[in-house]
UniProtKB/TrEMBL annotation, chain A:
The lineage of its organism: Eukaryota, Metazoa, Chordata, Craniata, Vertebrata. The gene is gins4. Transmembrane segments: none annotated. It comes from Carassius auratus. Keywords: Chromosome, DNA replication, Nucleus. This is DNA replication complex GINS protein SLD5. Residues 162-220 form the DNA replication complex GINS protein SLD5 C-terminal domain. Belongs to the GINS4/SLD5 family. It comes from the Eukaryota. Residues 71-141 form the GINS subunit domain. One of its GO terms (biological process) is double-strand break repair via break-induced replication. It is found in: Chromosome; Nucleus. SUPFAM superfamilies: GINS helical bundle-like, PriA/YqbF domain. It holds the Pfam family Sld5. Required for initiation of chromosomal DNA replication. Core component of CDC45-MCM-GINS (CMG) helicase, the molecular machine that unwinds template DNA during replication, and around which the replisome is built.
UniProtKB/TrEMBL annotation, chain B:
Required for correct functioning of the GINS complex, a complex that plays an essential role in the initiation of DNA replication, and progression of DNA replication forks. GINS complex is a core component of CDC45-MCM-GINS (CMG) helicase, the molecular machine that unwinds template DNA during replication, and around which the replisome is built. This is DNA replication complex GINS protein PSF2. Component of the GINS complex. It is found in: Nucleus. It comes from the Eukaryota. One of its GO terms (cellular component) is CMG complex. CDD domains: GINS_A_psf2, GINS_B_Psf2.
Amino acid sequence: MADASELSGGEESQEELMTPAELIAKLEEAWLNEKFSPELLENKSELVECVMEQITHMEENLQRVKKGDVKASVHRMEIDRIRFVLSSYLRSRLQKIEKFFPHVLEKEKSRADGDPSFLSPEEFAFAKEYLANTEVYLRNVALKHMPPNLQSIDMLKAVPEPCLDSFVFLRVKERQENILVEPETDEQREYVVDLDEGSQHLMRYRTIAPLVASGAVQLI
Amino acid sequence: MDPAEVEFLAEKEMVKIIPNFSLDKIYLIGGDLGPFNPGLPVEVPVWLALNLKQRQKCRIVPPEWMDTDKLEDIREQERKLDTFTPIPSLYYMELTKLLLNHAADNIPKADEIRTLVKDIWDTRVAKLRLSADSFISQQEAHAQLDNLTLMEINTTRSFLLDSLNYMYKLRSNLQPGRSQDY
């Protein structure tokens, strides 16, 4: 079972111990990254589970406290705040799944065995159902009235892909050297920049996508 | 991002309060707070400070930078330089607003502070608009934006990013051989 202290920091080789406070900080990072990245990021279901456990645990304790206790009200306020971040995080993932569902499912299909899944089991079920329902809907309202040769639709082509060339704002958490900046126009040349720790930048998501995944930069 | 969400993040900042009640340590998920003793200053997150203040259980000690002399210096600096000056708090605008709206009676010269912070904000946002303008007209692909706060970025985020994305689409459609988005 997942517990705050058992959560590893992404890589299985090095088991990192995390305090509940660090757990919440990680959740907030994941929340902001998910909010600002144009594509769906890797799921953090382990993190979500740990936070849920913390909240449930705290709520159980609060059941036993009598009404009107000052401390309990402070705890409730904190829980409400964490819950807000958690649901906002999950909601922004669902929004992206609804927006890019064929591509999300395609990515999931082409993932090699052993690679971590981008979707949690629940999100995967949701995406599949969403795809099926959309197809049924389109068939019922339009496609079945079309000539037979026009009745099929390729969802991958019908739904726009996430635009990885979007610009994003980011803050650097670990210094990075030689990040290639592609030119905007044909007259310009490409060049490299160093990203110093703590500095903030505006650039294309595609260039720094791996750094977001590894946690070296934070989208803001 | 909704401005309220930026404010939500600002509410995590720590602020000193002087409670008028006593209470043991509170073991929150995000860390321990207290103990609270009447008259003894203690650090708590802003969300709790405002709640206690509203229930008249504490006095809020304004952050060090929330001081007319210091803010005047920053305003001068900000007007003199073309770049963004380092700001004492990443959430200066939100904190000023929150604390002045809910605890103005604990902050000396509250009205002056409000004006000063507004001046600083206006100067910075004007600079931000100027640099966004030159970023677009020079078709840059990268910009460094140190010392900009989240709320400042937020004022221009959707407008700037959407325009950049549309311009990119228009341009990549102009150049044959580049793939289109749809």
